[in-house]
Write a structure and sequence with these properties.
By secondary structure, the chain is α+β, with helices and mostly antiparallel strands. It has four helices and four strands.
Length: 135
């Protein structure tokens, strides 16, 4: 049996604070979601001015990244590359860039999903949050 790391509340707060700081530094109004490796919501915040739909998209991106143990943009690229049948995959519905897994020692601990600006900027915010852990 393997022993694996898990996200603790202190980790989640570090991620959230760093992601929020990145968004505010750039004047980006976004929603930020953090999930565990099963895609269960651990943290959510919607910054002032973020579109209401971002409150649905950010958690979906995070869940998709966590369950697949890969960035959600890879699914978007697959579909854009012609693999439209992937749209039928169960439970995975955040098929846009902006979901980034939190990886440690080859294992996925969870993910961060961001929505509200360009998808590359959403991913930038998520990665800034994860970087705060220093993994």
């Amino acid at each position: 049996m393997k022993t694996s790391a898990v996200l603790e509340l202190s980790d989640i707060k570090k991620i959230a604070a760093a992601a929020e700081a990145e968004a505010l530094k750039n004047n980006w109004n976004v929603a930020i979601a953090i999930v565990d490796n099963g895609g269960h919501l651990l943290w959510f915040q919607r910054l002032d001015g973020a579109a209401p739909v971002s409150a649905h998209i950010a958690p979906s991106k995070a869940r998709t990244a966590a369950l697949g143990c890969r960035e959600s943009r890879l699914y978007e690229e697959m579909i854009n590359g012609g693999r439209a049948s992937f749209l039928s995959a169960p439970t995975i519905d955040g098929l846009l860039e902006g979901g980034v897994p939190i990886m440690k020692d080859g294992l996925c601990l969870g993910a961060v999903g961001v929505s509200g600006v360009k998808s590359t900027e959403d991913a930038q915010i998520a990665k800034a949050g994860i970087a705060a852990l220093g993994l």
